[in-house]
Amino acid sequence: MIETRRFRLRPPVDADAGEVLAMMCDGETRRWNPATSVEDLDTAAHWCRRMADWTSGDHATWAVVDRDSDAFLGCVSIHSVNRVQSDAEIGYRVAPHSRGRGVATEAVAAATVWAFDHLALVRIELAHAVPNPASCVVAERAGYRLEGVLRQSFVYGDGQRYDEHLHARLATDSV
Prior knowledge:
Blueprint: E1 2-3, E2 7-10, H1 17-25, H2 27-31, H3 41-52, E3 59-66, E4 72-82, E5 87-94, H4 103-119, E6 123-129, H5 133-141, E7 145-155, E8 161-170
Parallel strand pairs: 5-6
Antiparallel strand pairs: 1-2, 2-3, 3-4, 4-5, 6-8, 7-8
Helix pairs in contact: 1-3, 4-5
């Protein structure tokens, strides 16, 4: 578990399934994320269990919840962990009712520190579609420097292939 000033990052639990389903069915979430297998409460609960299982060592995923109420606000994941290269990627989703409150920035920053401290990573990358400026703001505010544009690099949930901004943060970067 990770505590921030306003939030708690904890593994997803079955009780999050309803909020996970609502977030995954949201149009903006679907547009800017890869297609998801979450389609109903059962698949949402399965997603929670799968994301909470870190035994493979290739990811660590947290539900982001309000520290006081435990209300689900979104999720953040360190994924594609490569122990040989000491690097990984980070991704996040924010529930529609929580957007614009700095949830993603605070969660990304906290998960990044955790990953550098606990996984001995040297580099973490954050990529987002160029036409998604909100993700650019999150990356920059969380200390991820813009490194360049990956041309036509990823097919997003809307089925379109987009150029992506590649941001990265090094363990040695000062934030």
